[in-house]
Amino acid sequence: METARPTIRLLSASDAPAYASLRLSAIDEAPGSFLSTRDEEAKRSIDEIEARICSTANQVVFGAFAGDRLVAVAGLRRYPLRPVLQKGFLWGLFVVQEHRRSGIARSLIAAAVHQARAMGLAQITLNAGVDNARAIALYRSAGFETVEDEPCAGEIDDDADREVEMVLRLG
Question: Residue limits of the N-acetyltransferase domain (predicted)?
Answer without folding.
Answer: 6-171
